[in-house]
UniProtKB/TrEMBL annotation:
This is 3-phosphoshikimate 1-carboxyvinyltransferase. It comes from Chondromyces apiculatus DSM 436. Pathway: Metabolic intermediate biosynthesis; chorismate biosynthesis; chorismate from D-erythrose 4-phosphate and phosphoenolpyruvate: step 6/7. InterPro entries: Enolpyruvate_Tfrase_dom, Enolpyruvate_Tfrase_sf, EPSP_synthase, EPSP_synthase_CS, RNA3'P_cycl/enolpyr_Trfase_a/b. HAMAP family: EPSP_synth. Its EC number is 2.5.1.19. One of its GO terms (molecular function) is 3-phosphoshikimate 1-carboxyvinyltransferase activity. The active site is at 329 (proton acceptor). Phosphoenolpyruvate binds at residues 23, 96, 124, 180, 360, 404.
Length: 453
């Protein structure tokens, strides 16, 4: 597992760079292309390993996938009912989105599929998706979680749904805001003759709704309520032709680095800024962050544009509620920004972070302390005492195999008083394979130490 060795920044970060294709949109585009009718074309910058796990799953289900040029996927859709039984368990790697969204499609298949994942994914809660799918008639079983009563984890065994049975309609109130659960229900709803209604406590990312609607599936949203009513629908998803916007979650690390390194000027090109993902912008604005948005139109109902960022004198903020829900994957990098802001930042309503690729509250607290930042863990968040007036302490930290922690730590390291080390950094390829190259192109000095055991 390589380490990153990061030098404190001695010169501004400067330049205009792309980021990988939005991971959430790409998962959905790949899955829908697999059950569409005809050949889909999906273009987007550098696929991370999570998206590759979804591609691998489709191949295992009999879908033809080609990658004629880097950044271009051709997917031969099999239609809603054309998937075939996989020969072996499907490995979802580190990707929660792959496992949970796929569960929605597999719940309706006439064959059994087993979904497995890596050590981290095998600990993540799956009852949240299994329960509503069972309520609509699916067969889905997992391993009882010894740490949590009533919880299951992967491996998941899903199906078969034996004809003439079909999934039934459902009206479901999600206990937690989760786009993965909502999307699994909507995807399974494509196979149910009756309507699917889902309500969430707060609106989570709505890429599935936007994409389904753009593909002619009858779907309506009102606040945090979504309805998919297939009566009158052709039952066919047309092939997609889509250029996936850049990933706002990946862009956030660059946006943050530009806030922290004096005299920087960074542009991130063609970033998707769907309003259900822009909590990072609002949080950063509230911290007096400096950035501008240059709109460039829409792709498949997703707004995009260029982001221009420069250094800021940051002040502490309170990040919770709806903003936390709309920036859930950005909380680690917001913690890093809070470490350089004047005052005490409070993160709350973010208990979900405890069940991501790592316990992101505990692990981020460990990372902040290693850099000499005082913080206090809360059940659903953290208090962080900013230390903006002198460099952070150079540190050696572990990513705990979590890509977002590794990248947040690398950004903190730019503000340290000597070289810092981020151990176990291979995980960055989960979402941002060219992270190191991108930061180097902007002027940062980072080495990859492959020699680490
Ligand atoms: O639907 C998606 O693409 C995602 C939803 C979020 O997870 P939850 O649904 O668990 O909130 C997010 O953290 C994850 O990175 C991607
Ligand atoms: C939580 C994440 O992804 P997933 O749930 O798909 O593993 C993430 O990318 O931060």
């Amino acid at each position: 597992m390589p380490d990153l060795v990061i030098q404190p920044s001695v010169r501004p970060l400067f330049g205009s760079v792309p980021v990988p294709a939005d991971k959430s949109i790409t998962h959905r585009a790949i899955l829908l292309a697999g059950i569409a009718s005809g050949r889909s074309r999906i273009r987007g910058n550098t696929l991370g390993e999570d998206n590759r796990a979804t591609l691998g799953a489709l191949r295992a289900l009999g879908v033809g996938v080609e990658e004629p040029t880097p950044g271009e996927l051709l997917i031969e859709g099999k239609g809603l009912s054309g998937l075939t039984a996989p020969a072996a368990p499907i490995d979802c790697g580190n990707s929660g989105t792959t496992m949970r969204l796929l569960a929605g499609i597999l719940a309706a298949q006439p064959f059994t599929t087993i979904l497995v994942g890596d050590a981290s994914l095998s600990k993540r809660p799956m009852e949240r998706v299994a329960k509503p799918l069972r309520l609509r008639g699916a067969r889905i079983e997992g391993r009882l979680d010894p740490r949590r009563v009533g919880e299951i984890t992967a491996p998941l065994e899903i199906g078969p749904l034996r004809p003439p049975h079909a999934l039934c309609g459902i009206e479901y109130d999600q206990p937690v805001a989760s786009a993965q659960v909502k999307s699994a229900l909507l995807l399974s709803g494509l196979y149910a003759p009756d309507a699917t209604y889902v309500r969430e406590p707060l609106v989570s990312r709505d890429h599935t709704e936007r994409m389904l609607s753009a593909l002619g599936v009858p779907i309506r949203t009102a606040g945090s309520m979504v309805e998919l009513d297939p009566s009158g629908w052709s039952g066919e998803i047309p092939a997609l032709d889509l250029e996936v916007p850049g990933d706002i979650s990946a862009a956030s690390f660059l946006l943050a680095a530009a806030q922290l390194v004096p005299e920087s000027r960074v542009t991130v090109r063609r970033v998707g800024w769907n309003p259900t993902r822009t909590g990072i912008f609002e949080a950063l604005r509230d911290m007096d962050g400096v950035f501008a948005m240059e709109a460039k139109g829409e792709v498949m109902a997703e707004p995009i544009g260029d982001l221009h960022a420069s250094p800021a004198t940051l002040r502490a903020s309170r990040i919770g509620g709806e903003i936390a829900a709309r920036s859930i994957d950005e909380i680690p990098i917001l913690c890093a920004l809070a470490a350089r802001a004047h005052g005490v930042t409070e993160i709350y309503d973010a208990a979900e972070l405890r069940v991501k690729e790592s316990d992101r509250i505990a692990v981020m607290a460990e990372v902040l302390r290693a850099f000499g930042v005082r913080c206090e863990e809360r059940r659903d968040g953290m208090l962080i005492e900013g230390r903006p007036d002198r460099p952070l302490d150079a540190a050696g930290v572990s990513s705990h195999g979590d890509h977002r922690i590794a990248m947040a730590a690398a950004v903190l390291a730019l503000c340290a008083d000597g070289p810092s080390r981020v151990r176990d950094a291979a995980c960055i390829a989960t979402s941002f394979p060219r992270f190191v190259g991108t930061l180097r192109a902007l002027g940062a000095t980072i080495e990859v130490d492959e020699g680490a055991p």
